[in-house]
Amino acid sequence: MIIGIPKEIKDNEYRVALIPSGAGILVKSGHKVIIQKSAGIGSGFTDDEYKETGAEIAEDAKAVYDNAELIVKVKEPLSAEYSLIKEHHTIFTFLHLSADKELINALIKTSAIFVAYETVELSDGTLPILTPMSEVAGRLSVLIGAQYLMKPAGGMGRLLGGVPGVKRGKITIIGAGAVGINAAKIAVGIGADVTIINRGLDKLRVIDNIFGGRIETLASNPYNIEKSVIESDLVIGAVLIKGARAPVLITKEMVKRMRKGSVIVDISIDQGGCIETMKPTTHSNPVYDVDGVIHYGVTNIPGAVPRTSTFALTNATLPYIKKIADKGLNIFKEDPALAKGVNISKGKIIYPAVAEALRG
Fold first, then answer.
1. Reduced to 3 states, what is the DSSP secondary structure of residue 75?
2. Does residue 359 have a pLDDT over 90?
3. Mode of pairing for the β-strands spanning 342-345 and 348-349
């Protein structure tokens, strides 16, 4: 199979969909890999490194799309890429369609097959490709929040870990999945006062055991969310419903009652966000103010640390890329995990939550 790796064009997206050694594995398996010129530079990989593995370098994205059958990306296609996608393509990437009706309609029109990293799901319910990026985003969220709490960045001037004799900053994390747990690790590590709120009590019991009571765990309900949010210096939105739009759990009224100069980081913004006042932002223009509260809604947070993120992503995606390349479209009948990744196929919506989002 011919596998194409275009250069990402999303704002400040430095990740690349495949590391050189991954390309080498595919070439040795009898496949052809075409990667766009300079696609790996942002992650620290030169064109020569790809050439050494047997991959071919294409001058532009059009050459990649024109010659490849399987297109492997990091982020969803942008409008400039729509015309490059043809009916014979299978596109394997993060899509997050439930928050973007315009994108859904654009992809339907191409009649190609779109397989979303975030909905590839194992029999135990885990999301093997989404998880490593959730780990990266969760860990970064606390560091980002700490940065924007500094006075020169517009925050209240709070040091989350405090110092002896001074009260620590309070962090509330909404959601206890991979994002929430990884955010909690960093938050506890810097010495903050941490609360994590989740709907499932079993997950809260696990967290209580992991952290030895160092984190306050609360059941998710409007009272607990409101009370904790308005007392917090940093709020991290980490809510996930597989493939569906995130529910809005923090209202604009709650935001109004937060301290001036506090910060919200909404990692669920890819799926629409769980904060009513949050909108998508970019690394070029990451924050804005609502009622004195700093809002951070960057939709590709892991792109800020592309070296780490690209290795972590390829670790997760390469086995699936190889399966698709080896078996072709038959793999979606043979592999239940990959079958759940198919969101749109030949002009039809396959994933139920995406169909529901388009109707809503």
1. coil
2. no
3. antiparallel
Distance CA 35, CA 339 (A): 26
Tokens 């593995």 sit at which residue? 53
Question: Strands 287-290 and 216-219: what pairing?
Answer: unpaired
Residue-by-residue DSSP string for 99-153:
G-HHHHHHHHHHT-EEEEGGG---TTS--TTHHHHHHHHHHHHHHHHHHHTSGGG
Quote the pLDDT of residue 244: 82
Close Cβ partners of 325 (under 8 Å, ≥ 6 residues apart): 1, 3, 26, 29, 31, 70
Helix, strand, or coil (residue 198): strand
Token duo for residue 39: 């696609």
Q: Is the per-residue pLDDT at 261 higher than 70?
A: yes
Spatial contact of 257 and 232, defined as CB atoms under 8 Å apart: no
CA distances from 71 to 18, 19, 35, 191, 328 (A): 11, 15, 10, 44, 13
Query: 210 to each of 53, 160, 185, 205, 278, how far by Cα in Å?
Result: 42, 21, 10, 9, 31
Q: What is the pLDDT of residues 16-63, one digit of tens each?
A: 999 999 999 999 999 999 999 999 999 999 999 999 999 999 999 999
Tokens of 276: 């009513």
From the CB of residue 240, how many other CB atoms can be counted at a distance below 10 Å? 21
61-87 burial code (b ≥16 CB/10 A, e <16): bebbbeebbbbbbbbbbeeebeebbee
Active-site amino acid positions? 96, 270
What is the arithmetic mean of pLDDT over 284-293? 97
Domains, the chain: 2-127+305-359 (3.40.50.720), 133-303 (3.40.50.720)
Name every residue whose Cβ is closer than 8 Å to that of residue 306 and which is 6 or more positions away in sequence. 14, 15, 16, 42, 43, 44
